[in-house]
Design brief:
- The complex is a heterodimer of chains A (about 110) and B (about 110).
- With about 110 residues, chain A is mostly beta strands.
- Chain A is about 0% helix and about 50% strand.
- Chain A contains no helices and eleven strands.
- In chain B, strands 2, 4, 5, 9, 10 and 11 form a six-stranded mixed beta sheet that branches.
- By secondary structure, chain B is mainly beta.
- Classes of the chains: A mainly beta (about 110), B mainly beta (about 110).
- Chains A and B meet through β4, β5, β9 and β10 of A and β4, β5 and β10 of B.
Chain lengths: ~110, ~110
């Protein structure tokens, strides 16, 4: 595709609801990253996939957060029992294989928990 | 853990002046240092990057310098224009690993 695509662009969830956020990386990009960006802050790392393998999930804030990339392409970030503090923009980025390659970001999903 | 500090948090300049944003990183194994520009409500977009084997890189009005010994890198924008107004983020990573971002600098260029 032309770029990294995320859906939905906006999501309003009631506290306690489960949500699923989707990321379509650039075709052929091996590495996929999820970031959380609170208002006025820099992107905070959540998790990293290389193909279908989740190599680093050290940034996931709690066990309510789960990410998968079963076929090494599309990825889903799931948040269970959403809390108000989960409100943020969730950004996905992908990189092709190789050292020091550019990370391309999607538009993000703005999650608001009410 | 890995950390990237960025200063200043806000920067206001007159059109035509230069702007400098500075970052320091903690992981001495970091070898890739990109700078992203993010306009309100939009995705971060790469404006320039530098690898650890290079001390300086320039692209038209934008330049980045890297001091590996001090673990500092800086973004320099010359002849600023109103369309340069945005939030700028520095980042650092090692190899193909995750990018660690700074907290951002809101740049305002006044006509």
């Amino acid at each position: 595709g032309a770029g990294v695509s995320q859906s939905p662009r906006y999501k309003v969830a009631k506290r306690g609801q489960d949500v699923a956020l989707r990321c379509d990386p650039i075709s052929g990009h091996v590495s996929l990253f999820w970031y959380q960006q609170a208002l006025g802050q820099g992107p905070e790392f959540l998790t990293y996939f290389q193909n279908e393998a989740q190599l680093d999930k050290s940034g996931l804030p709690s066990d309510r957060f789960f990410a998968e990339r079963p076929e090494g392409s599309v990825s889903t970030l799931k948040i269970q029992r959403t809390q108000q503090e989960d409100s943020a923009v969730y950004l996905c980025a992908s990189r092709r294989w190789g050292v020091d390659t550019e990370a391309f970001f999607g538009q993000g999903t703005r999650l608001t928990v009410v | 853990g890995e950390n990237v500090e960025q200063h200043p948090s806000t920067l206001s300049v007159q059109e035509g002046d230069s702007a400098v944003i500075k970052c320091t990183y903690s992981d001495s194994a970091s070898n890739y240092f990109p700078w992203y520009k993010q306009e309100l409500g939009k995705r971060p977009q790469l404006i320039i990057d530098i690898r650890s084997n290079v001390g300086e890189k320039k692209d038209q009005r934008i330049a980045v310098t890297l001091n590996k010994t001090a673990k500092h890198f800086s973004l320099h924008i010359t002849e600023t224009q109103p369309e340069d107004s945005a939030v700028y983020f520095c980042a650092a990573s090692r190899g193909t690993d995750k990018l660690i971002f700074g907290t951002g600098t809101r740049l305002q260029v006044f006509p």
